[in-house]
Amino acid sequence: xxxxxxxxxxxxxxxxxxxxxxxxxxxxxxxxxxxxxxxxxxxxxxxxxxxxxxxxxxxxxxxxxxxxxxxxxxxxxxxxxxxxxxxxxxxxxxxxxxx
Amino acid sequence: xxxxxxxxxxxxxxxxxxxxxxxxxxxxxxxxxxxxxxxxxxxxxxxxxxxxxxxxxxxxxxxxxxxxxxxxxxxxxxxxxxxxxxxxxxxxxxxxxxxxxxxxxxxxxxxxxxxxxxxxxxxxxxxxxxxxxxxxxxxxxxxxxxxxxxxxxxxxxxxxxxxxxx
Lengths: 99, 166
Known about the structure:
By secondary structure, chain A is mostly helical. Helices cover 89% and strands 0% of the residues of chain A. Chain A has helices at residues 2-36, 38-55, 63-97. By secondary structure, chain B is an alpha+beta fold.
């Protein structure tokens, strides 16, 4: 039984760390977008994604649709980051002040 | 290829970027008279390339900045590797026939088992065929050569305006 639990922990831990890292990234993106503005942030993120895709061999025939899809996904990422930030803020306030 | 960027080419690239197109300078060799091979790519001059509306829009964007001197379609020529020396095609191993008595167990309705197995095999076969079909399609798309449409600017710069899978 102990072995099963240890295996479970070994299996789950990397995924938990990845999820945590992805959440931190999303929160960081959302906070950064407060400084530069959402349109600028989505534009920069989408341009970077298109550049990576084209460098990796993606056909430039679809660079324009890819850019707009990237902007949409970047916007969704920022919104998800705001939601995650709000949850973390409420959690920390309740934890600190025992609300 | 040289990647010297002229002021005109820079203007074209800036306008392309503002329209969310991704152009690249791939050389400055001027007009091409005959097909030319370099670094695994064939550069074929085309006076009137057969291209779609997407490419026409890109060419119009270039022409709004500077006149063009021609077009080039670049095709990748993949290198075929020879097999290593001493390579022999593997031969299938011979299976020894089973010898001895084979006793059939009683109490099992083999016709039902066979029908169930046949149905299961059909279902699995259908799923596998579908997966295989999509895999073959994906491999066919990504393994095919990817031509490039290159526009020759008036100053001789080769500007790649579009790539696609054939």
